[in-house]
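lol ok so funny story. i was supposed to be doing the assay writeup but got distracted and ended up predicting the structure for this chain instead. priorities right. anyway since i did it might as well share w the group, maybe its usefull for someone
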Amino acid sequence: MVDLFIDQVLLKNNKDQDELDTEREIIMYLQNRILMLFFASAACESCQQFVPVLNSFFKQLTDESYVDRSAQLVLLYISLDQSEEEQSSFLKDLPKKTLFLAYEDPYKRELESMFNVEKLPTVVVLRPDCSILTSNAVNEIAGLGPDCYHNWQEAAELIDRNFMISEDFEQKSMRTLTDPLRRLKYKVEYEKKGKKKHMSQTGIMAEDKDGGAAPF
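and the output, tada:
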């Protein structure tokens, strides 16, 4: 999936419309995630009707008020609007975590052709390796809601790296921090044991030299 956008500029649907324009930023944002390409237009009545459904679906999977950890899911709006004003208006109804391409970006039409988009709205769902999970998930999202994400997750064999990396990193970090302390502890204990053993052996040798311990 990352390969599709490695040379592109993606915009965030926030107030400043921050850009993801470096390879590192795009990889960090898209790698190991399921990507939904939402092809739509403000002039399309069906698209307008589908937006609240899509919003609810996406928020229930990614919004912290619904879930403890956001799903590994990215929503990218591919605008087929007739004007930049229409695109801007439509974006206001989409989640703030939505990404999009600039209105003048010709890559939108390339993606439309690449995925054979014939009607609106269309939601193309991609695995992390760019292969297609679903050519149009509109009915699936409307019918199953968030449950269909779990079907996609299983079908994509998605690795839950967010949890694993955090856990592994924490364990590794704690081990790294405590290793010197543990080595010092074992060294001190070993030296104490060695000193006790030496003193015990010295005592036995002294008793033998004096003819042994006195009888009771």
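Residues 162-190, 212-216 have pLDDT under 50 and may be disordered. The helical segments are 2-5, 23-30, 45-62, 84-91, 107-114, 138-144, 147-156, 161-209.
back to the writeup now i swear
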